[in-house]
Amino acid sequence: MKPFIYDYSLEELQQWAIENGEPAFRGGQIFDWIYVKRVNDFSEMTNLSKALREKLTEQFEFVTLTEITKFESKDGTVKFLFGLHDDHAIETVIMKHNYGNSICVTTQVGCRIGCTFCASTLGGLKRNLTAGEIVAQVVQAQKILDERGERVSSIVIMGSGEPFENYEATMTFLRIMIHEKGLNIGQRHITVSTSGIVPNIYKFADEDTQINLAISIHAPNDTLRSKLMPVNRRFPFEDVMESLRYYLAKTGRRITFEYALIGGVNDQPEHAAELAGVLKNMLCHVNLIPVNHVPERKYVRTSRSDIFNFQKILSEQGVNVTIRREQGHDIAAACGQLRAKHMELR
Q1: Where does this protein hold S-adenosyl-L-methionine (predicted)?
Q2: Residues with catalytic annotation?
Q3: Exposure winner among 30, 59, 177, 339, fewest CB in 10 A?
Q4: How do residues 32-53 score in pLDDT, each as one tens digit?
């Protein structure tokens, strides 16, 4: 296969232009055609010479995301299952908020983290996405929003897969997204979520970005977290917390802790009290997520009263906490659910 044009940053396209006997600004023109004018055919790049357009066609291709299915929720959430060039499938979600449109992107086909309440890990990890395949999800979403005269205002890297196990592609994707000459998404409007890949939390802390960091924690201690998240055996709870303390010291940026509430498992008052003790005096926010029912999993949703009680305990202990607004509940919008159904039917 030829490389994907979306895999290349502006600087790399400028270098490619120079190496092919063109001035560097041609790379900027290509970048503009891709991300501002959003064409998907090199022949449409009309301010480039015919010879250069032919060279681009010979050396690169665009990522093709084939729409396998699409579901629209009553709340405006739209979930896509896209087919890739190699017959794998990924999910991308557009979520409408009162402040704009948020896009949830996927970084891997499947996942190997193994969280016991999540559909993404069903079937394991198939492969990493390239940076361009992650980029293409946002471009595709933006083209859909173009028809409404709207734009992508924020990005969450919380779809299937573990971004920090596909670290370099994820960082390349982020650099392309925030570039002022491209889609120009504000850094503080992007959040990357990890299950706690400790070496790359340190690495991310040293990147000197304003991009938000979220941690899937889901338990207040090692024993319970290892039961829910096998990755905790590789990167124990205290090691994760130590890396986050480094992140806070290095960046001064607030961390979001994602906590999926599972009925009778991690949602009791003693869990809330223990979590409050762990997070005491940390610059952080806890996002409580009532777990979606996954048919292949045995867990049940936490009752409304237990959700509010958990929130109350954290709040009384001085922890900043909210309950995530559920979106797309009626269209199986939890990570991996749509892909899992598609795999069953193949």
Answers
A1: 161-162, 193, 216-218, 292
A2: 91, 335
A3: 59
A4: 999 999 999 999 999 999 999 9
